[in-house]
Design goal:
- The structure holds 2 protein chains of 2 kinds.
- By secondary structure, chain A is of the alpha/beta class.
- Chain A has a domain of 162 residues: Rossmann fold (3-Layer(aba) Sandwich).
- Chain A is built from 10 helices and 10 strands.
- Chain A has a 6-stranded mixed β-sheet, with helices on both faces. A 4-stranded antiparallel β-sheet of chain A has the order 2-1-4-5, with helices on one face.
- In chain A, helix 3 packs parallel to helix 6.
- The termini of chain A are far apart.
- Chain B is mainly α.
- Chain B has a domain of 205 residues.
- The chains are: A alpha/beta, B mainly alpha.
- Chains A and B meet through helix 2 and helix 3 of A and helix 6 and helix 7 of B.
Chain lengths: 236, 293
């Protein structure tokens, strides 16, 4: 049994079908990438997995538990965190308060402090700016804050939506280094990226999404050498 | 001395506006809706106190507590049955519903209590204090209103900034989706906001009708609208803004009554709203609304 299983998922926006019968697995300890062009349904997929959008049909399970009836706000305490597209940090709150918000459902005060220290260790810049209002951070720093905030819930699996979007090349490299580090610490990652090149470099496996369908899947190294993927997504 | 006395009663009236405006502004901040039925919750609160105190002879303080509980439940019930089903609807639909709820509350009161004005017995039992050899007299109602309002506002600021449910409110008001991803129950937080706003409305009702002891089904309408003006003046969505806006409005209203014309005071109050919206559309403490990238 995979950690996260999605079976025959269908999602509609009104009459438009955004996700067409997709199935995929994420095993514990893996980094799995969902790649595809703008509008392929990557973000919709993640939003449906964490309950922000309702599924029309299909089944999503986390560690075998059906998430169908679980409201969005109960997902994080089941061990799944979501770093949303566009970061969505709480702009009016300080860096510190944003991070504390990530641990909202946790009651273990002492361990929360430890998590905070770990996040500050992984993102020294957040420590420097701990009292700064999040809205005044740069895009890259906000991305780090969004990731740190997700880590504060001590997730076993973390969904990341376009972490490299709109960032300078230097930050893109840094963000991907951090994802590698998250993986090396045993956390499972489901990564959605338009930057297929970077995503395939750090992923174990990947699924290619096109207009709501999974058209290809396999080992990231195989997909990287696949002629069609290279042509369509890697610009080669 | 006349000025000082006008100023102090203006601050007292303004504190009541602030308490009401807090309900408007918190609900707007979190549910992004204008709850125009909020003013009528004040009236219901005052009628509960009137019924308990005058008709049933319940001690004042207990009547006020019962009114607070009653209005809290009323506010949450209104949210649950009138507004929650419209969470995904257009803001116009929600606005019209709120106006509908306002008329519903007024007409229920009309049905039960009739249209004649009742004389409300003050919930305050404190002797007026006189200064400067009786030239400046401050009534017990004024003192209690200001003291109670200040305590409530301090408590509210501490609650919102220091407690978990308070911080959840801040998170929900900024981004409902992201708040859910943190594990915050958005519906629960919205219900809590209505509960707090309605409890404050009950207290405002008690203070308002103690200072101006005339109670009818329409008692809440005008203070409700003025508190809305106060919330906009302060910057809708901002808690300190509602406090400042309310007090500024109360002082302006009372000074216009005292020095310009008591008939024109309402016109002046609304003119202030128009001017503020022209000069500073976001209000005194309002945030600029940034489009999300």
């Amino acid at each position: 049994m995979a950690m996260l299983e999605v079976r025959d998922l269908n999602v509609y926006f009104g009459v438009i079908q955004a996700i067409k019968n997709i199935s995929f697995d994420v095993d514990a300890g893996e980094v799995v990438a969902l790649i595809g062009a703008n509008g392929a349904g990557k973000t919709t997929t993640l939003h449906t997995v964490t309950g922000l959008l309702p599924a029309a049909s299909g089944k999503i399970t986390l560690d075998g538990k059906d998430l169908g009836k679980v409201p969005a706000h109960k997902i994080v305490s089941m061990g799944m965190a979501h770093v949303p597209e566009g970061r969505r940090v709480f702009a009016a709150l300080s860096v510190y308060d944003n991070l504390k918000m990530g641990a909202f459902t946790r009651k273990d005060k002492k361990e929360i402090e430890e998590s905070l220290e770990m996040v500050f260790e992984a993102f020294p810049r957040l420590k420097e700016r701990r009292n700064q209002v999040a809205g005044t951070l740069s895009g890259g720093e906000q991305q780090m804050l969004a990731m740190g905030r997700a880590l504060m819930s001590k997730p076993r699996i973390i969904l990341m939506d376009e972490p490299s979007m709109g960032l300078s090349p230097l930050y893109v490299t840094e963000i991907f280094e951090i994802i590698k580090k998250i993986k090396s610490e045993g956390t499972t990652v489901l990564l959605v990226e338009q930057n297929a090149n970077m995503a395939l470099q750090i992923a174990d496996r990947a699924y290619v999404l096109e207009t709501g369908r999974i058209i290809m899947d396999g080992k990231a190294s195989d997909l990287m050498n696949d002629e069609r993927v290279r042509k369509a997504y890697l610009g080669a | 001395m006349k000025f000082l006395s006008q100023l102090i009663s203006g601050i007292s009236l303004g504190s009541i506006y602030s308490l009401i405006a807090l309900g408007y502004t918190m609900v707007y901040g979190i549910a992004k809706m204008l709850n125009f039925a909020h003013g009528d919750v004040i009236m219901i609160g005052a009628f509960v106190i009137y019924t308990m105190c005058v008709t049933a002879g319940v001690p004042t303080i207990i009547s006020v507590l019962i009114a607070i509980v009653f209005c809290t439940i009323l506010g949450v019930t209104i949210e649950r049955f009138a507004y929650k089903p419209l969470r995904q609807a257009t803001s116009l639909a929600v606005l019209i519903t709120a106006i509908g709820v306002s008329y519903l509350l007024q007409n229920i009161a009309l049905l039960i209590f009739g249209s004649d004005t009742k004389s409300f017995t003050s919930v305050v039992n404190i002797e007026p204090i006189s200064f400067a050899g009786g030239e400046l007299v401050i009534s017990g109602e004024t003192i209690v209103t200001i003291v109670v309002s200040v305590i409530i506002m301090i408590a509210l600021v501490i609650f919102v900034n220091k407690t978990k449910p308070g911080k959840a409110m801040l998170a929900v008001s900024e981004d409902k989706g992201a708040a859910q991803l943190m594990g915050i129950n958005v519906n629960g937080t919205i219900a809590l906001t209505f509960a707090i706003g309605s409890a404050l409305a009950a207290i405002a009702g008690a203070l308002l009708c103690s200072t101006y002891p005339a109670l009818s089904p329409y008692t809440g309408a005008m203070p409700g609208i003025k508190a809305f003006v106060a919330a906009v003046l302060g910057g809708i969505g901002s808690i300190p803004g509602a406090m400042i806006g309310g007090i500024v409005l109360g002082v302006i209203e009372n000074l216009s009554k005292g020095y310009i014309s008591s008939q024109l005071s309402d016109a002046i109050v609304f003119a202030v709203l128009v001017i503020v919206l022209l000069v500073r559309p976001t209000g005194i403490m309002g945030k600029k609304i940034n489009e999300k990238v």
